[in-house]
Amino acid sequence: ALAGIPKNRQDYACAMPQVVHMRNTVREEDRFTRGQAPGGADLADDLLQAVKTHGANRIAACFVEPIAGSTGVLVPPEDYLPRLREICDQFGILLVFDEVITGFGRTGEAFGAHAFGVTPDIMTMAKALTNGAIPMGAVACRRGIYDAVLDAHPDYVVEFAHGYTYSAHPVACAAAIATLDIYENDRLFERGKELSPKFLDRMFALRNIPGVADVRGYGMLVGIDVETKGAPGARGHLLQRMLFDAGLHLKTTGDAAIVAPALVMEEAELDEMAEILGDTLKKLAKA
């Protein structure tokens, strides 16, 4: 593996981080499952296999989205995240949740960690932190990690050693504070939780439309697969264009449409969205 690397760079090359990919949580038998499917611990055991292959001392952290969003809304089976937590605890591996999509009420709870009852060691946040109006991201971590980082610094260092140009930008921070106030004052997390069953009802009613290959969802987040015809993703792209022309804009990734309505949406707007989506899926089936 070190062939061609200069001798004075080989130690560095050996120390470079490696990424081990685990299987996603899509299973054929889980098609059209509303919420979490049963099982899934065997999928999480991919991490255990990585431990056996590389050694726990060579694995710093396991990164996971509580619900994989941009890949088509992949809802984890019931045992998947708890099993990851168990393996990470057993071998001293940090569990990191990317809550950029699942955070701030999208799952019906404040974060996916709350919805699924699994606490990560580190959590990343963005997007809904400022309602997407101003770019901002944030990281939260366990107190023990925070203390370990600070204890390793000289006494005069009082914070994480961030040094990015736009860290704590006042405009972004003001937008975040205002957004958090709205979430709290308007009880939007609770509203999302109350709205979720009605939203899921409307989305899963689309399952019998010709050409719909799968519907899956949790909280206020749904993925709808359309049958692949021709090049992968071409059908999804066509669907997105047709929906836009019909008055509904959403994102497609590959041949999956991602539906994530605003937490302030009214039931009448849900009905309108579902009607446009249903009519367009029927037209797509004939295209």
Structure description:
- By secondary structure, the chain is of the alpha/beta class.
- The chain contains 9 helices and 8 strands.
- The protein has helices spanning 10-15, 41-54, 80-91, 112-116, 143-151, 170-185, 188-204, 234-246, 267-286; strands at residues 61-64, 94-98, 122-125, 138-141, 212-218, 221-226, 251-253, 256-259.
- Strands 1-2-3-4 form a 4-stranded mixed β-sheet. Strands 5-6-8-7 form a 4-stranded antiparallel β-sheet, covered by helices on one side.
- Strand 7 (251-253) and strand 8 form a beta hairpin.
- Helix 2 (41-54) packs parallel to helix 3 (80-91), helix 7 (188-204) packs parallel to helix 9 and helix 8 crosses helix 9 (267-286).
- The longest helix is centred in the C-terminal third of the chain and has 20 residues, at 267-286.
- It starts with 9 loop residues before the first helix and ends with a helix.
- Residues 1-14 have low confidence and may be disordered.
